[in-house]
Design goal:
With 411 residues, the protein is mainly beta. It is built from 1 helix and 28 strands.
Length: 411
């Protein structure tokens, strides 16, 4: 029988979604391990969030977003396999839910043949008012997860697998089956999403662990350049953002201020009816912006999270920034500071964002921020004050002139 282990890893995944208790929590990568005796055969370190559509009363459909929790464990049905049985990793979480990866190999490569998700629809804490109580299992044979033998499949970017009424989004993912040793291999097969299109990379590259943060500048950096980002699902743009970002991080008694470079930044995300998430990855810096849509059709930025390769992690899920109306965009040209925690804030410039109701891939009518309105109001006030001053001087002059004429007698 395979020996099964799971360990929580405090690696930020760059995404935050609804947890099983109905709260918004950052998603962390969790490590799973399958052993046969003392030999490890499968290792997986990943974050996963799952979007599920399910039926409620009156033939209506609800959607719930759930994250793979850090309490998830390896199920005892997992196996290293043999000549007739393929290796299988089954992860169990919540009240009767599971996610499984079924592996296969040839002479040079291995891959995930099948991704399966089993959901217990009678779990009322997750599937509120579900009209179906029986468990469902959905599978996909198109996962895109494949690598050379004796290398680790690595994909930090968000990648999506579509199943029937279920979408699974992986991020911060490292997976390896048919392990030659007791840990991940030093060589990695990097997914296409992580490879810069401007700089071709070889299929396998050494895995290194970064230990330094962006260097603290000797002088304050110049204002950042604005980048345009979007989230597109099934060829339809669901989130648009244009912004210039400057990060302020205090870590290990050192304050670092640096800009996000739109040229090297990779954007991805997830959209749903009431939640939209934008992930930005610039080198070793990962940013997450989560937007919520309330019952009054007003959206707002509810959460910002950051993770860097040197171990700095910050998150705040109780924000109310960037408020706007469904179908319109929020715009703020002035510099504004988005305070996340006492040790992390973002200076945003030339910002325009629309997380819901995007039509034809273009921003809707802009709702300007108070800072922009104040900046427009100041010249008006100054102009009115100057006009008033000129008027007062003119009136005083006319009164003085009239009095001087009154002092003369006609001869």
């Amino acid at each position: 029988m395979a020996l099964l282990h799971s360990n929580k890893q405090l690696l930020f995944a760059g995404v935050a979604l609804i947890s099983f208790i109905g709260c918004l929590n950052p998603v962390f990568a969790v490590t799973f391990e399958v052993k046969n005796g003392n030999n490890t055969c499968i290792m997986a370190e990943l974050s996963a969030n799952i979007s599920v559509k399910y039926a409620v009363a009156n033939k209506q459909m609800n959607t719930v977003l759930v994250a793979l929790p850090d309490s998830a464990t390896v199920d005892n049905s997992s196996t290293c396999g043999n000549d007739t049985v393929a290796p299988l990793l089954v992860v169990r979480f919540g009240d009767g839910h599971s996610l499984s990866l079924n592996f296969s190999r040839n002479a040079s490569d291995y891959q995930v043949d099948t991704l399966s998700v089993t959901l217990n629809l009678s779990d009322s804490a997750v599937f509120v008012n579900s009209s179906t109580k029986a468990p469902i299992t959905v599978s996909s044979n198109s996962t895109g997860i494949h690598a050379s033998l004796n290398t680790t499949y690595r994909c930090m970017s968000a990648t999506h697998v579509t199943l029937t009424d279920v979408n699974v989004t992986f991020s911060n993912m490292r997976v390896e089956a048919y392990l030659p040793a007791a840990n991940f291999s030093k060589e990695a097969t990097v997914c296409n999403a992580d490879i810069s299109t401007s700089t071709p990379a070889p299929k396998t590259t050494p895995v290194t662990t970064a230990t330094t943060a962006p260097p603290a500048p000797t002088t304050a950096p110049t204002n950042p350049t604005a980048g345009t980002y979007n989230v597109t699902i099934s060829n339809e743009t669901c989130l648009l953002a244009k912004m210039a970002l400057q990060l302020n991080i205090t870590y290990q008694n050192k304050t670092t201020v640096f800009n996000i470079n739109p040229v090297t930044t990779v954007a991805s995300g997830v959209c749903d009816t009431n939640i939209s998430t934008l992930f930005l990855r610039d080198g070793s810096t990962n940013l997450t912006f989560m937007f919520m849509l309330n019952d009054t059709k007003k959206f707002y930025l509810s959460e910002i999270a950051v993770a860097t390769s040197d171990g700095f992690i910050a998150d705040n899920k109780n924000l109310t920034y960037l408020r706007g109306t469904l179908g319109r965009s929020y715009m703020c040209s002035a510099e504004q500071t988005l305070t996340v925690t006492s040790v992390f804030s973002i200076n945003a410039f030339h910002l325009q964002v629309q997380p819901f109701g995007v039509s034809s891939g273009k921003f809707g009518t802009a709702e300007e921020c108070q800072l922009d309105e104040d900046n427009m109001l100041i010249p008006i006030i100054v102009g009115a004050a100057l006009a008033g001053l000129v008027l007062i001087v003119l009136i005083a002059y006319l009164i003085g002139r009239k009095r001087s004429h009154a002092g003369y007698q006609t001869i």
